[in-house]
Amino acid sequence: MLPLSPRHTAARASRAARESSYGGGRGGEWVGGSEDFEEETDRGASPAAARGNAANQVASEEVLGADGAPLVDALSSRANDDALCSICSEGHSEPPNQILFCERCDVAVHQVCYGVDVIPDGEWLCWPCVQYEEQMKRQGVSQADIRPPRWMGVGHTGGSRSVQCTLCPMHCGAFKQFNDGSKRWVHVVCALWHPDTRMPLDVNESEVVSGVEKLEGRLAAPTQHVCQVCRRAQGATIKCSFGHCATTFHPLCGRAHGWYLAIRAGSKSGSYQYKAYCAAHSDAQRQKDREAAERAALLAQGLVPVPEAPKASRRGRPPVGAFSMDDYDDSADFQPPPPAAAVPALPPRVEIDAAILQAIALKEQKIWLLQGVRLELETLRMLADQVRRREKVKVQYARAAAEVHEARLEDPSAGLEQLAEEMLENAAVAAAAVPDTAGAAAAAVGDDSAADL
Length: 453
Fold this sequence. Notes:
Elements: H1 10-19, H2 54-63, E1 71-72, E2 99-101, E3 108-110, H3 111-114, H4 127-138, H5 143-146, E4 170-171, E5 175-178, E6 185-187, H6 188-193, E7 207-209, H7 216-220, E8 238-239, E9 248-249, H8 251-256, E10 260-265, E11 272-277, H9 279-300, H10 349-410, H11 412-452
Parallel strand pairs: 1-4, 5-7
Antiparallel strand pairs: 2-3, 5-6, 8-9, 10-11
């Protein structure tokens, strides 16, 4: 099954930058990036490659810290949006490549993207959070203080929220370490998309990223390569993968800006190519990969295109299997020779179109069902939120009642005086309500008498 390519992240990135403060499968032969062309009709246009689009420019500046604020990866937390892998930006989660969530920082990653072979029975933590909690335990801190339960509403610090990537200024996200013993952290996205670094996908360890020795010179003098998105000379940027394009940017900055990060099948089985494109070339490359995915889907369904007719060679010789005068026999009626290789007959064009329409109808039905499930889940989330608020009010009321009782027990005389005042107030309210009730009853009797007359 061909996996869906990642969604656009510029809109979600801008929303995450406004709502939060600093404290997104490889199962097929082709994998794209930055767009899910099979879901939601409004994803057909590129949010960042639209040159001159002022709205997207403003949204991206909000994400990328135009005022000097820390840069935060928009996919490092679920917030109120769909759960997308912070590495490949895809949202599908199916065995054996499910999405895992860190119990501390809430970062979402695929098993294959982060190198998790087996899902643990209990909780799962990303590598920065694992090392942080182990360090706190060695210092004698209790587990309740290291990571309070989520229902208490206490924000978790430390772990992936406190480490800094060596190759980019972005905070939070999915991290791993270089294997040179320096204990330096790097985003998995930066390690995969940077041409000088390597990271195996089948190793479930922390220190697995290699190639940092090739970047020591650039890390020592980062001012020579300024990111064209965040305008910061920090870490090590990459160049656009299109031809001789000299646009430099950080991979996560480009993704937050809506630029195209593509994952394509490599020449070897199980290998992948990671390409990044700037705003000028993102749309064309995205369309190219979209068409490749559509052709692969047709091939998987057996709907191959009609082959072209054989062409003559440069010397004008007929193609193999064509009739020649040497095959003419005077002693028999003229019969053209059979072709050299029999080509199976293809279904007519009408049948191909009907099959394509049927496939589209099935996809639309699947999308409709998923939308219904999403609506039900959203309703359930709203009900759970209302229950949580109600219970919170109950707790506040119980605490206030306990404080009142404690105050009365400490000073009984004052408590009795306050109780007497409350009783007098209640009696006055009841007395004020009695005349209104009597008047209403008299009016009602008068109306009945008039009706009898």
